[in-house]
TrEMBL record:
Keywords: Capsid protein, Virion. This is Spore coat protein B. It comes from the Bacteria. Residues 142-161 are annotated as: Disordered.
């Protein structure tokens, strides 16, 4: 019962910070700053210079608010899921950045989201990532920026995106199908499906 009251108190504190400019985690590569947009069951929604970032609360070590920097104006659109895994599922078949910085930061196309992991296509590699190790996730290529970002040529992004999405889908492993049964031994023989060749 005591644990429940502590988590309710923490959530109430965090909800009081909605609309405030905050810093999540004090330092290091996973430290990020922006306007706290929403507090959900197990994740936070942060509006940064690079766009909307979804932060798993299980990986938040600290939150510092900057009360003088109260954000005014409109709220950006964001994914409203019941859980952090729900956000990840909503980003299936999209380009994302997983984890904010350091050696765990990775960008790619989510090809599939399973119960405990996802498959991310990065260049010509398929990377499996455990969902519980995802600290933050951010959609890429959407114009969710607050306008403080400079540089970067975005022309032709949609045609390049379609090309990469098609390549990513074709790189996924094809199912292995049974082709014939060896009637003498009763063993099935497996071979790659014709579409995989």
């Amino acid at each position: 019962m005591e644990n429940s009251s502590k988590s309710n108190g923490t959530k109430t504190f965090l909800e009081g910070l909605v609309g405030q400019y905050v810093k999540i985690n004090r330092g290091g590569p996973e430290s990020l700053q922006g306007t706290l947009v929403a507090v959900k069951n197990d994740y936070l929604v942060l509006w940064t210079k690079e766009g909307i970032v979804y932060v798993s609360t299980s990986h938040v070590k600290s939150i510092t608010d900057f009360p003088s920097n109260k954000s005014g104006g409109c709220k950006p659109d964001y994914i409203k899921a019941s859980s952090f895994v729900g956000v990840i599922r909503a980003l299936n078949h999209k380009f994302v950045q997983i984890n904010w910085g350091g050696p765990e930061k990775i960008e790619g196309f989510i090809a599939e989201v399973g119960n405990t992991s996802l498959l991310l296509v990065v260049n010509r590699e398929v990377v499996q990532i455990q969902l519980l190790h995802i600290k933050t996730i951010k959609p890429l290529g959407q114009n969710t920026s607050r306008g403080d970002r400079s540089g970067g040529n975005r022309s032709g992004g949609n045609s390049n995106r379609s090309l990469v999405e098609n390549r990513a889908r074709h790189m996924l492993p094809k199912p292995v199908l049974p082709l014939k049964v060896n009637r003498q031994k009763g063993d099935r023989l497996y071979e790659k499906s014709p579409s995989a060749v």
